[in-house]
Amino acid sequence: MAKELLKGNEAFAEAAVRAGVEGFFGYPITPASEFLEYMAKRMPALGRAFLQAESEIAAIHMVYGAACAGKRTLTATSGPGVSLMSEALSYIAGTEVPAVVVNVMRGGPGLGNIAPSQSDYNQMVKGGGHGDYYPIVLAPATVQEAIDYITLAFDLADKYLSLVYIVVDGNLGQMMEPAELPPMRELRKVPPEWAVSGAKDRDPNILTSIYIDPPDEEVTNIRLLKRWLEVEKNEIRYKEYELDDADIAVISFGVAGRVCLSAVKTAREEGVKVGLFRPITLAPFPRQAIEDLSKRVKRILVVEMNSGMMLQDVKQAVAGRVPIEYYGRMGGVTPFPEEVLDEIRRVNENDEEIPDGMERVQWLERLEERIARGE
Amino acid sequence: MEKSIIISGFGGQGTLFAGQVLAYAALDAGKHVTWIPSYGPEMRGGTARCTVTISDEEIGSPLTRNPSAVIAMNLPSLDRYERLMQPGGLMLANASLINREMDRTDVRGIYIPAARMAEAIGNPRLTNMIMVGALLASEKILPLDVVKKSLKEHLPARHQKTLPLNFEAMDQGAAFVKDAVVA
Amino acid sequence: MAMEKVELNVVYERPESLTTTTTHYCPGCTHGTAHRLVAEVLDEMGIREKAIGVAPVGCSVFAYDYFNHDFVEAAHGRAPAMATGIKRVRPENTVYTYQGDGDLASIGMAEIIHAAIRGENITVIFINNAIYGMTGGQMAPTTLPGMKTTSSPLGRDVEVSGYPIRMAEMLSTIDGASYVVRQSLHDAAHIRKSKKAIRRAFEVQEHGLGFAIVELLSSCPTNWGITPAEALHFVRDKMVPYFPLDDYKVIPEVAKLKV
Q1: ipTM
Q2: pTM for this predicted structure
Q3: How far is C223 from chain A (nearest CA, A)?
Q4: What's the domain range around B27?
Q5: DSSP letters along A61-73, please?
Q6: Residue C76 carries which DSSP code?
């Protein structure tokens, strides 16, 4: 199939359809509503289930039900919706059934705004629901990547009986970019053996997240953790640009990552030896790759659209080997490549040590100066 | 080569569509392209704006602060982007709604009475296509005939009857620029 | 001497839809009765092999241990949403929720109302015993005025906590609901009527007629602090007057069903 000019949110929804989703349950929220609207037309036309629920809480419990029934299922929402869904997400993790959640992130906390943001990094990567579990988190940066990783998300969810989150922001949801959709997959004909489908010619299947005796829960926790360690071993994904001879590594994910790519290219033209490391799996985090990187480069610049959430994971991987600097925009402001370029130029000149914790203090000073200049 | 073009105006002036026409044409010409609308509360204020980036390589940022070309459909758009444009950039202004020229001398400004020209063709909604024609005649972004072919291919069937007028508008926009350069 | 052959009539046996597991319910609790009625109906209708139950959070949280068919365990109050998810992707299965009053009428109020609004083709068994049993006898949305609980030690003060909610009456006002009844489990005659209501509620689903709910007034001697016999009298004398037994909504298509 040739590339077409596809609009983000609609392309993501179609990718889910082609991956064999049989149930979509959602609730309107900007900037994810186009996903819901697309499914409202597309799913019934294919004879598949679409339902606008009364709340995000109900929507994700419907996803939970459909997942238990052995069908591919997902919802798409934004951060405030994920907050409400956290209950069921924990139950889905505890019941060990596969489900996919797309978060088109927006500025927060609270009602915040509807502009693009990466402020849900901790919410998505560090959990949000209660209890001991680890979701897989994928952060595509282009419409094509989003299509590819939504397709992959369902395979990973099935393989590891896991929650898989796709985090994008409104930029990616709203933009159009040439991309190619995969062919339509055939729907599953036989339910997975663990699914509730009616106890005909077999013992009943019971799906629950309750293990009232602590030793039973511990066995479950061990099973979940072992599965997660397999995920960590097999599923780490990232992209590197111009890092072979780099003195400076920019580390950035999602749309912020592609903004950095523009800045890196321009800086290269100016002779700065800089490259980009773009994590695609935020969980599992590419810790080893970043540790290796920190042994090759002289300085690291982390760029995010939040207050420095992934920064903490990078610091853990780098373990003080090289100075780390930070630059970010918050509140739904997307950085322009021009500001990241300024930062790369500045980092290139800077040979000072940065005491632990000062990277954000220094960044805030620079950010406030920039804001004072009206940028 | 990478060009970032911002098309900005009031809602209803067809700025988003004009950007999509360029994006489809870029795709058909085998280029990398991104199209991104302004989105957020500003949309509610009646501003409609999109950024189109066309490149021979993988595109990083779909957004730019300092565009290389701007189509300003109204005065607030000219005010905003005059200050942000790259040195040597191109400002195409809809002179029917913009009553001043730019103060900056390090950017090119072309002032086109596009709304009046569109009315003369028979439909004020063709203003955007006059501006697209003017852009293509001023900058080596894409050949005009490629853009026309893409418009024909991607325009929904119910709008196909408007093709001749759209082509006419592009041609007049292009002709205006050529005349202006000669003059 | 040869043994004389004796013909034995089976007068009572375990329904196939129940397991042999002994329930954890307290003596005098009517959950066991309600379980058995549901199981008998599933057996009689021959739908055990396609039944999927949705258990609540509450005393019947382990219902899945006692029923011999597929079951899932929902979060507190969310059973109707989870059942919706299952039914929408498996319309060929029989899906029902089994919920208590804290689950259905308090934390899960939105989910039950909207399932009814959608006319969701599921069956709901609602056990109303006017108390939170599992957590140790706290005040429920259906606790009677003046009734003492661990969280209303001086008796439910309606000035502070409001009045009990009558779910069947409220749900009957919703266009999407096809069959809404309240019955009671306090004596044999009412148990028989309850079974008939449960049967009809499952027939509604099997005929694709939409949302059906059977509210069953039930006893909780342990948390009420009275004997099992007194508890049944309490249901009869105190609860039935506040929560009248009736067919609150029976759409014409449902009335035509032969039960």
Answers
A1: 0.95
A2: 0.95
A3: 22
A4: 2-182
A5: HHHHHHHHTT--E
A6: T
